[in-house]
Amino acid sequence: MNLIIDIGNTSAKMAVFDQGKPVEVRRTSNQSLEGLEELCMHYPIRKGIISTVITPGKTINEQLEKLPFPWMKFNHETPIPIKNLYQTPHTLGPDRLAAVIGANDQEPGRDILVIDAGTCITYDFIDHEGQYWGGNISPGMNMRFKALHAFTDKLPEVKAGCNIPPYGQTTESAIQAGVIHGIEFEINGYIHQLLKNYPALLVFLTGGDDFSFDTNLKSLIFADGLLVLKGLNRILEYNDKI
Predict the structure, then answer these.
(1) Domains plus CATH for the chain?
(2) Measured between alpha carbons, how far apart are the two ends of the chain, in Å?
(3) Predicted pLDDT at 214
(4) How many CA atoms, within 13 angstroms, populate the side-chain half-sphere of residue 159?
(5) What confidence category does residue 141 fall into, taking pLDDT thresholds of 50, 70 and 90?
(6) % residues pLDDT > 70 (the chain)
(7) pLDDT digit string (tens) for 211-241?
(8) CA atoms of 56 and 25, how far apart (whole Å)
(9) Integer Cα distance of 31 and 238 in angstroms
(10) Using the 8-state DSSP alphabet, how is residue 169 labeled?
C-alpha cells in the first residue's frame, strides 16, 4: 500500500492507495497532518510520496521524519512518466504536474485539458503524445470574492450561494453572479479555444471548489476530485520501477 500526501495552499489531503485504487482519503490541516499516525497504523503502508506547494512547518517535518517506511518528496527533479515542456520546471506547482499525470494515466493517448479549481484556478494541457505544454493560472472563486472586498471601499465580502441569477439585483447577488458566471465563461472559453485545434479534447475538472456550470460540452468533461492524488500515486509507482 502507498501513502499519498498532497499539501495545498488551503488544506492537505492524505490518501492510502492499494493497487492503484484509493482505499481511504482524508482532508486535514496543511499546518499539521492530523490523523497521519493513525492512518499509518491502520494500513500496511510500504512507501509514500509527499507533494507540497507551501513550505512545511516544523510540525509536519517532524511527522514526516517519524514515518516508518521510505517516502519521497515530489519536485522538479523527480522522474515522471510524461515529457515536461515547461520552461521553468523548478517554478511549476507539483500539484499541477501531478494532475496532468493523473489524467494522462487514466486516458492515455488523448489530448487533455486539466482544470483545477481551488485557491487558484489552473488550466493545464497535455497532448496525446504525453507531452505537457504548460498552462495558465487564474484567481480562484474565493480569491475573487475577497479581492472585490479588499480592493474597494464599499463592496461587501460575500460567498457563493445557490440559484445564482443571470443578473444580480442586489449588490450581493451582483457580486455572486459576476464571480460565478465569470468563471463559467472563462472555463468555457478555454475549452472552446482548445477544441479548435484539438477536436477530440477531453477535460478533467478537479479541485476543492465544487460548483456546476452550464455548458453544452458536458460529454467532454470528467469530474475527478482525486486527480492530483492519483497522479502522485502514479509517480510513486513509476519511480519504484526505475
Answers:
(1) 1-73 (3.30.420.40), 75-242 (3.30.420.40)
(2) 18
(3) 57
(4) 2
(5) very high
(6) 95
(7) 555 555 666 788 999 999 999 999 999 999 8
(8) 20
(9) 29
(10) S
CA distance 136 to 145: 20
- Our answer to whether residue 124 is catalytic in this structure is no
Cα separation, 236 vs 242, whole angstroms: 10
Q: Hey, what's the cell of 178?
A: 459576476
Residues 194 and 124: their CA atoms lie apart, in Å, by 11
Half-sphere exposure of 36 (CA within 13 A, CB side): 27
Q: For 104-136, what is each residue's pLDDT tens digit?
A: 999 999 999 999 998 999 999 999 999 999 999
Place of cell 490541516: 29
Count how many Cα atoms sit within 13 Å of the Cα of residue 93 in the half-sphere of its side chain: 22
Choose the catalytic residue: 6, 95, 105, 124.
95
Torsion of CA 64, 8, 228, 122, to 10 degrees: -150
175, 85 in Cβ contact below 8 A? Answer: no
DSSP, res 168: -
Size (the chain), residues: 242
Q: Which helix (H) or strand (E) holds 217?
A: none
pLDDT at residue 208, rounded to an integer: 74
Exposure of 64 in the CB half-sphere (CA atoms within 13 A):
21
In the numeric block, which cell numbers belong to residue 47?
512507501
Sheet of 202-206: strand order equals 83-84, 131-139, 120-126, 112-117, 202-206, 221-223
Instruction: Give yes or no for a contact between 103 and 142, defined as CB atoms under 8 angstroms apart.
Output: no
Q: Quick one: cell of 105?
A: 494515466
